[in-house]
Structure of BCCT family betaine/carnitine transporter:
Amino acid sequence: MNNKEKISLIKKLDIMTTLVPFTAIILLCILFLTYPEASGAVLASIRSFLGNELGSYYLIIGLFTLICSLYMAFSRYGSIRLGDCEKPQYSNFKWGAMMFTAGLAADILFYSLCEWLLYAGEPHIKDMGSVQDWASTYPLFHWGPIPWSFYLVLAVAFGFMLHVKKRTKQKYSEACRPILGKLVDGPAGKFIDLIAVFALLAGTATTFSLATPLLSMAVSRVTGLPESRFLTIAILIIICAVYTFTVYFGMKGISKLADSCTYLFFGLLLYVLIGGGQARYTIETGITAIGNLTQNFISLSTWTDALRTSSFPQNWTIFYWAYWMVWCVATPFFIGAISKGRTIKQTVLGGYFFGLSGTFTSFIILGNYSLALQTKGILDVMGIYQATQNLYQTIMAILETLPFFKMGLVLLALTMIAFYATSFDALTLVAASYSYKELPEDEEPHKHVKLFWAILLMLFPIALIFSENSMANLQTVSIIAAFPIGIIILLIIFSFFRDAKEYLEHS
């Protein structure tokens, strides 16, 4: 790349949106490393205020986006085609695979294996009934229709903006233009975009910092290497190398990696379902959980625990809605981009089909297998967790009950790496597009800009791993970042309806 090309590239970039988050993340990394206890205390106080005093804000936005997504699909807006091509750009399988793997990362494997365990000791679960029924229901709720609605309403808005209106600014602020008008070209637009990038980095940090230690432990058990933070960071660097290499090849590379990830994922599920010997219990408990969720969906979505008898929604439901909201910066852009040629109805309903079938299958098979070990007295999973207070060691004990467990660990490690790489391919591509002042829908960011974001996305997770932050602190990062994102999501939804209404009237 010669000097003339460098100057040309710099002129195309939005320097503020690129460098301000970079500088802020470097400063935050230094603070987390230098003052881990003080930074944790500050995070805890902010979380207490947002979760306890403003928790209903997150719950209301969640229910509202679900209703909006269904209205988009079944109203007159559902017939709008995202783009002027006659058929979808990608086949159903490729589209579903890219959307599912880009939207979840390896977190789904981590939480599928242990989430019921986190709920089992909660007083609220005991008040509702048996651990058997409700600890298997709540994971489906927290990874179900409302979280996916965050992705899908924004994917429709961004797809409409890119493929129908042909706008060249691939930013959150541009999606707000129908409401804010020329304000998006000034400080208000810059502020929205900066908030979006900060949220993107917060979501990335939470994802990597929660699930990577499990991957590190699996590698340690298979290879015999000692468990350490340095092994975890070495794995992060390998993942970074994989997704950086793939993203260099653009959408073709991402599509192939997503296909591979999907095959590995379902291979792992089959291994646990058949090898674990608990198929009947697993499937029947899953059917019961889906029935519970269907019957109690509205009450689960609106329960605020006003008397704080257990603070269950503050500790869990609000965290999950916030967690998915911070991922809404990148994933919906990616889903919107790959949905060219589909109608809005096809995008929403197809998104729910592929998204929910993937998440529900994962939680039913992986989660209910470990629940079977507990309820049938095969392995005291809850006892192990209470004794060690370590989710990763507990998950290892669960996996060791499977036949040829080292082979299972290799499959788990490969699947997690593939999930991470596919998810962060999409994140890197969107973040790099965000760095441009303007970028036409069919043009991809420069490889050097992708490389910059590929490295930047790793810095914050590494700092959090070194500072040994607890899960509560990692959750808080998402809850804080999601608060302003919720307001922006509402702006984008109302902007879409205004824009789409004008489009239909003129059409």
Notes: The chain has a mean pLDDT of 85. Residues 187-223 form the longest helix (37 residues). DSSP finds 24 helices and no strands in the chain. The chain has one domain: 3-506.
